[in-house]
Fold:
Amino acid sequence: MAFLAFLVAEVASGTAHRTIQHRFYELPSSGIQEIPQDSSWKAPSSSQGAILLTFDNVNDSDMQACMKQAARYWGQVLSNSTPIHINVAYLEDLQEELAVCDVVFFEETPASMVPSALYAQQMAIESTPDSPDAYIWLNPTKQWDCSSSGNINSTSNSLYTTTLRSLAVCLGFGSSVTSYDGTTPCFQWDGHLSAFDRLVADTNGKKLEDCTLNDVDLQQFVSPSGSTNY
Structure:
Protein backbone atom coordinates (compact mmCIF):
# COMPACT_ATOMS: atom_id res chain seq x y z
CA MET A 1 0.00 0.00 0.00
CA ALA A 2 1.44 3.37 -0.97
CA PHE A 3 0.21 6.89 -0.46
CA LEU A 4 0.64 10.32 -1.95
CA ALA A 5 -0.20 13.54 -0.16
CA PHE A 6 -2.30 16.18 -1.87
CA LEU A 7 -3.42 19.69 -0.97
CA VAL A 8 -7.16 19.94 -0.42
CA ALA A 9 -8.12 22.86 1.81
CA GLU A 10 -7.74 26.51 2.59
CA VAL A 11 -6.97 28.90 5.43
CA ALA A 12 -9.90 29.49 7.75
CA SER A 13 -10.70 32.45 9.96
CA GLY A 14 -8.99 32.65 13.35
CA THR A 15 -6.06 30.28 13.74
CA ALA A 16 -5.07 29.30 10.21
CA HIS A 17 -5.61 25.65 9.40
CA ARG A 18 -4.86 23.65 6.30
CA THR A 19 -5.81 20.16 5.21
CA ILE A 20 -3.45 17.67 3.61
CA GLN A 21 -4.80 14.63 1.81
CA HIS A 22 -3.10 11.24 1.65
CA ARG A 23 -4.19 8.62 -0.89
CA PHE A 24 -3.55 4.92 -0.29
CA TYR A 25 -3.12 2.52 -3.22
CA GLU A 26 -2.71 -1.21 -3.61
CA LEU A 27 0.78 -2.63 -4.17
CA PRO A 28 1.89 -5.80 -5.98
CA SER A 29 1.93 -8.97 -3.91
CA SER A 30 4.85 -9.36 -1.52
CA GLY A 31 3.74 -12.58 0.19
CA ILE A 32 2.27 -13.03 3.65
CA GLN A 33 2.31 -10.22 6.17
CA GLU A 34 1.84 -10.54 9.92
CA ILE A 35 -0.85 -8.33 11.39
CA PRO A 36 0.47 -6.40 14.43
CA GLN A 37 -1.50 -7.25 17.54
CA ASP A 38 0.21 -5.69 20.52
CA SER A 39 2.81 -3.03 21.05
CA SER A 40 5.95 -3.76 23.07
CA TRP A 41 5.58 -0.30 24.62
CA LYS A 42 2.40 1.03 26.15
CA ALA A 43 1.41 4.27 27.79
CA PRO A 44 0.51 3.97 31.49
CA SER A 45 -2.93 2.37 31.78
CA SER A 46 -4.19 5.40 33.68
CA SER A 47 -3.44 7.75 30.78
CA GLN A 48 -3.76 5.68 27.62
CA GLY A 49 -5.20 7.66 24.77
CA ALA A 50 -8.56 7.40 23.10
CA ILE A 51 -9.20 7.55 19.37
CA LEU A 52 -12.93 7.80 18.72
CA LEU A 53 -14.23 6.84 15.30
CA THR A 54 -17.54 8.18 14.01
CA PHE A 55 -19.07 6.21 11.15
CA ASP A 56 -21.24 8.16 8.73
CA ASN A 57 -22.36 5.63 6.13
CA VAL A 58 -20.15 2.63 6.92
CA ASN A 59 -22.76 0.45 8.61
CA ASP A 60 -21.14 -2.97 8.32
CA SER A 61 -20.57 -4.21 11.89
CA ASP A 62 -17.48 -6.25 10.94
CA MET A 63 -15.87 -3.23 9.31
CA GLN A 64 -16.64 -1.03 12.30
CA ALA A 65 -15.25 -3.62 14.74
CA CYS A 66 -12.08 -4.03 12.65
CA MET A 67 -11.41 -0.29 12.50
CA LYS A 68 -12.12 0.16 16.21
CA GLN A 69 -9.61 -2.60 16.95
CA ALA A 70 -6.98 -0.71 14.94
CA ALA A 71 -7.85 2.47 16.85
CA ARG A 72 -7.33 0.62 20.15
CA TYR A 73 -3.92 -0.54 18.93
CA TRP A 74 -2.84 3.07 18.45
CA GLY A 75 -4.59 4.18 21.65
CA GLN A 76 -2.45 1.90 23.81
CA VAL A 77 0.73 3.79 22.86
CA LEU A 78 -0.73 7.28 23.13
CA SER A 79 -1.13 9.42 26.19
CA ASN A 80 -3.54 12.17 25.20
CA SER A 81 -5.56 14.36 27.53
CA THR A 82 -8.52 14.75 25.18
CA PRO A 83 -9.95 12.18 22.74
CA ILE A 84 -8.93 12.24 19.10
CA HIS A 85 -11.98 12.30 16.83
CA ILE A 86 -11.85 10.80 13.34
CA ASN A 87 -14.74 10.59 10.92
CA VAL A 88 -15.07 7.48 8.68
CA ALA A 89 -17.22 7.34 5.56
CA TYR A 90 -17.44 5.88 2.07
CA LEU A 91 -16.46 8.17 -0.80
CA GLU A 92 -18.13 7.26 -4.08
CA ASP A 93 -15.66 9.26 -6.20
CA LEU A 94 -12.70 7.00 -5.39
CA GLN A 95 -11.45 4.83 -8.25
CA GLU A 96 -8.09 3.07 -7.80
CA GLU A 97 -7.54 4.31 -4.26
CA LEU A 98 -8.19 2.03 -1.31
CA ALA A 99 -8.68 4.96 1.01
CA VAL A 100 -8.10 8.68 1.36
CA CYS A 101 -7.24 10.62 4.52
CA ASP A 102 -7.95 14.30 4.99
CA VAL A 103 -5.87 15.52 7.93
CA VAL A 104 -6.38 18.93 9.52
CA PHE A 105 -3.22 20.89 10.35
CA PHE A 106 -2.93 24.10 12.39
CA GLU A 107 -0.22 26.72 12.08
CA GLU A 108 1.87 26.49 15.22
CA THR A 109 4.01 29.28 13.77
CA PRO A 110 3.73 31.00 10.37
CA ALA A 111 6.23 28.45 8.99
CA SER A 112 5.29 25.29 10.89
CA MET A 113 2.14 23.16 10.95
CA VAL A 114 1.04 20.55 13.48
CA PRO A 115 -1.76 18.00 13.05
CA SER A 116 -5.02 18.79 14.78
CA ALA A 117 -4.68 15.64 16.91
CA LEU A 118 -1.50 17.09 18.44
CA TYR A 119 -2.59 20.73 18.41
CA ALA A 120 -5.62 19.87 20.53
CA GLN A 121 -3.36 18.35 23.19
CA GLN A 122 -1.01 21.34 23.16
CA MET A 123 -3.81 23.89 23.46
CA ALA A 124 -6.01 21.82 25.81
CA ILE A 125 -8.94 21.96 23.43
CA GLU A 126 -11.07 19.12 22.15
CA SER A 127 -12.24 18.27 18.70
CA THR A 128 -15.74 16.87 18.21
CA PRO A 129 -17.43 14.32 15.93
CA ASP A 130 -18.80 17.27 13.94
CA SER A 131 -15.37 18.94 13.73
CA PRO A 132 -12.93 16.02 13.81
CA ASP A 133 -9.15 15.97 13.68
CA ALA A 134 -9.18 13.98 10.44
CA TYR A 135 -11.33 12.08 7.97
CA ILE A 136 -10.86 8.57 6.56
CA TRP A 137 -12.66 7.97 3.28
CA LEU A 138 -13.03 4.35 2.15
CA ASN A 139 -13.57 3.04 -1.36
CA PRO A 140 -17.01 1.36 -1.35
CA THR A 141 -16.22 -0.74 -4.45
CA LYS A 142 -13.36 -2.64 -2.80
CA GLN A 143 -13.78 -6.05 -1.21
CA TRP A 144 -12.49 -5.40 2.30
CA ASP A 145 -10.82 -8.10 4.40
CA CYS A 146 -11.87 -7.40 7.99
CA SER A 147 -9.48 -9.88 9.64
CA SER A 148 -7.67 -8.38 12.60
CA SER A 149 -5.58 -11.34 13.73
CA GLY A 150 -3.13 -13.83 12.26
CA ASN A 151 -1.52 -13.29 8.86
CA ILE A 152 -2.89 -11.79 5.66
CA ASN A 153 -1.96 -12.03 2.01
CA SER A 154 -0.51 -8.71 0.91
CA THR A 155 -2.81 -8.68 -2.11
CA SER A 156 -5.94 -8.62 0.06
CA ASN A 157 -7.55 -5.29 0.87
CA SER A 158 -6.88 -5.48 4.59
CA LEU A 159 -9.08 -2.97 6.36
CA TYR A 160 -7.12 -3.43 9.58
CA THR A 161 -3.73 -2.50 8.11
CA THR A 162 -5.29 0.25 5.98
CA THR A 163 -6.77 1.72 9.16
CA LEU A 164 -3.49 1.41 11.07
CA ARG A 165 -1.66 3.35 8.34
CA SER A 166 -4.47 5.86 7.97
CA LEU A 167 -4.45 6.54 11.70
CA ALA A 168 -0.67 7.05 11.60
CA VAL A 169 -1.20 9.75 8.97
CA CYS A 170 -4.04 11.26 11.03
CA LEU A 171 -1.66 11.51 13.98
CA GLY A 172 0.87 13.41 11.87
CA PHE A 173 3.29 10.65 10.87
CA GLY A 174 3.69 11.64 7.26
CA SER A 175 5.61 14.14 5.18
CA SER A 176 3.84 16.95 3.32
CA VAL A 177 5.98 16.27 0.23
CA THR A 178 3.92 15.27 -2.80
CA SER A 179 4.00 15.34 -6.60
CA TYR A 180 1.28 16.83 -8.75
CA ASP A 181 2.68 15.47 -12.01
CA GLY A 182 3.84 12.09 -10.71
CA THR A 183 7.55 12.85 -11.06
CA THR A 184 8.47 16.26 -9.60
CA PRO A 185 8.37 16.43 -5.79
CA CYS A 186 7.20 19.55 -3.96
CA PHE A 187 5.94 20.62 -0.56
CA GLN A 188 2.19 20.94 -0.03
CA TRP A 189 2.26 24.49 1.24
CA ASP A 190 5.16 26.68 0.17
CA GLY A 191 6.81 28.07 3.28
CA HIS A 192 4.81 25.88 5.67
CA LEU A 193 6.39 22.61 6.79
CA SER A 194 4.67 20.01 8.91
CA ALA A 195 6.15 19.03 12.26
CA PHE A 196 7.01 15.64 10.74
CA ASP A 197 8.85 17.29 7.82
CA ARG A 198 11.24 18.88 10.31
CA LEU A 199 12.14 15.47 11.78
CA VAL A 200 13.11 13.81 8.49
CA ALA A 201 16.81 13.38 7.64
CA ASP A 202 18.73 11.08 5.32
CA THR A 203 21.56 8.71 6.28
CA ASN A 204 24.09 11.52 5.79
CA GLY A 205 22.30 13.80 8.21
CA LYS A 206 20.87 16.10 5.55
CA LYS A 207 17.48 17.43 6.68
CA LEU A 208 14.36 17.54 4.55
CA GLU A 209 13.65 21.08 5.73
CA ASP A 210 16.95 22.20 4.14
CA CYS A 211 15.58 21.29 0.70
CA THR A 212 12.85 23.92 0.66
CA LEU A 213 14.70 26.41 -1.56
CA ASN A 214 16.23 24.03 -4.07
CA ASP A 215 14.15 21.77 -6.32
CA VAL A 216 17.21 19.71 -7.27
CA ASP A 217 18.04 19.04 -3.61
CA LEU A 218 14.47 17.95 -2.93
CA GLN A 219 14.45 15.65 -5.96
CA GLN A 220 17.69 14.00 -4.84
CA PHE A 221 16.48 13.75 -1.25
CA VAL A 222 13.30 11.83 -2.09
CA SER A 223 14.73 9.97 -5.12
CA PRO A 224 18.15 8.65 -4.07
CA SER A 225 17.85 5.61 -6.35
CA GLY A 226 16.36 7.40 -9.32
CA SER A 227 12.71 6.50 -8.66
CA THR A 228 10.63 8.96 -6.67
CA ASN A 229 9.21 7.66 -3.41
CA TYR A 230 6.94 9.43 -0.95
Summary: Residues 1-14, 226-230 have pLDDT under 50 and may be disordered. The helical segments are 61-75, 116-123, 159-170, 215-222.
